[in-house]
Amino acid sequence: MYKVELYKISHSPNLLYLMLVVIPVSLFLGVSISVQMNISEPDNLLNIAFLSSSAVLMLYITIFASLYVNRDYSSNNYRVLIGCGLSRFKIITTKYVIFWLVSSVIISIHAAITMAIPIFLNKVSIHMENIQTITLYYLIYTSIISVVFFLSIIGKTLIKSIMINLAFIILSSIAVSALSSTNFTPVIPLQSLQVISSIQGDKHIAIISSLLYILSTYIASCLVFFKQEL
């Protein structure tokens, strides 16, 4: 089933259209960073690529969720798969893994293009400690991807899913703005991004929080999908 899902995505024009938005936006951001900000520190570059771009990246993930997860609801593909003898557990797990994989690729393309231009033009060097920070950023984004997947499963229909996920993005951004000046324990993924970017942040709390998000949202997605009428 994994090969079939990857084949469907690789031949989907919708993903191509999304990438036609991701790449120009990343190029524009990378050029803007090099010309206007003249960044020389790798930490600042990582903050812009992963933290400052969080709302845009979440929007990309939400759009992809609508094109991949919710499109199968509207096309009755889940009912067809169950009719072919596949278990709901296998279907939802495959969808989750593929959704996480492609979403991570989208994030990687955005980050790579955004950072490549300043690295080349401003001679910014990435060190080993920066690799660890990047890994932690990906862990946090995995928790965000898991939440978006769960909300898409709840929404079922395309419009409802988009509305729920946009509400999540807006409320998360508001919460981060309210908590950014406090020592509040990171209870939302975007707050964890700020903890990772901070030198004095409690990174272990952000890691534990993210792992709990990943586990709980995956289990919740399975439970909701098991009880849904398709």
UniProtKB/TrEMBL annotation:
<feature type="transmembrane region" description="Helical">
    <location>
        <begin position="162"/>
        <end position="184"/>
    </location>
</feature>
<feature type="transmembrane region" description="Helical">
    <location>
        <begin position="97"/>
        <end position="121"/>
    </location>
</feature>
<feature type="transmembrane region" description="Helical">
    <location>
        <begin position="45"/>
        <end position="69"/>
    </location>
</feature>
<protein>
    <recommendedName>
        <fullName>ABC-2 family transporter protein</fullName>
    </recommendedName>
</protein>
<feature type="transmembrane region" description="Helical">
    <location>
        <begin position="136"/>
        <end position="155"/>
    </location>
</feature>
<feature type="transmembrane region" description="Helical">
    <location>
        <begin position="15"/>
        <end position="39"/>
    </location>
</feature>
<keyword id="KW-1133">Transmembrane helix</keyword>
<feature type="transmembrane region" description="Helical">
    <location>
        <begin position="204"/>
        <end position="226"/>
    </location>
</feature>
<keyword id="KW-0812">Transmembrane</keyword>
<keyword id="KW-0472">Membrane</keyword>
